[in-house]
Design goal:
- The chain is mainly beta.
- The protein has one domain: Ribonuclease Z/Hydroxyacylglutathione hydrolase-like (Metallo-beta-lactamase, Chain A, 4-Layer Sandwich).
- A six-stranded mixed β-sheet has the order 5-4-3-2-1-14. The chain has a six-stranded mixed β-sheet with strand order 8-9-10-11-12-13, covered by helices on one side.
- The longest helix has 11 residues.
Length: 197
């Protein structure tokens, strides 16, 4: 069984059925005791790139936005049985050329880790055509879109489940902000909670 641990803010740890460990945007929370095969960093802001929290396994790799987006080309590859596709992520605080989101296919489920973003053209032109099981969308309304705009994005993307994250500066989670996010199949996941499939 695969497992996603929500560590809080925009940080996640994923374990595949085969035991591959992937961290996305390490910054806060618990769960850094497991050594990683892969670390994915959506951009270089301090609240997404604390790679030093993670111990890499021998042969473990770190992929930063600069490794995943070159000359306007978004990288897609498969490693450790996981399909990884970098996708557009941007807004007034996050330059398009320096930030990415990730589409990860892990043990038959596709996860959209939006990174830091607001509504993008690519959500409609690319993501809406994908079968996405879990979409993790930032909703803080300061550095990214707010809950209302994220709700619109969730409707466009059409994931089976949409999950609000990155809610309030200085906090791992904020229930009141999370409740403002509305989407079909909405899940509210708190830090330390897991999703399994």
């Amino acid at each position: 069984m695969a497992e996603l641990l929500y560590q809080g803010h925009g940080s996640f740890r994923i374990q595949t059925e085969a035991g591959t460990v992937i961290f996305v945007d390490p910054y806060v929370g618990e769960g850094y005791d497991l050594p990683a095969d892969l670390v994915l960093v959506s951009h270089e802001h301090h609240d997404h790139n604390r790679v030093e929290l993670v111990t890499l396994k021998p042969g473990g790799k770190v992929y930063r936005a600069a490794d995943c987006l070159k000359n306007g080309e978004y990288r897609a590859w498969t490693e450790f049985g996981v399909t990884i596709r970098s996708v557009a992520a941007y807004n007034q605080n996050h330059p398009k050329a320096e930030c990415v989101g990730f589409l990860l296919t892990v043990d038959g489920k596709t996860l959209y880790m939006a990174g830091d973003t607001s509504r993008t053209e690519e959500m409609e032109t690319e993501l809406a055509g994908e079968h996405i099981d879990y979409a993790f969308l930032p909703i803080d309304g300061i550095y990214n879109m707010d809950a209302a705009e994220a709700s619109e994005c969730a409707a466009v993307i059409g994931a089976v489940h949409s999950i609000p994250v990155h809610m309030k500066p200085g906090a791992l989670f904020d229930q009141e902000t999370a409740e403002r996010f509305q989407a079909d199949g909405r899940l509210i996941v708190k830090p330390g909670e897991t999703l399994n499939w």
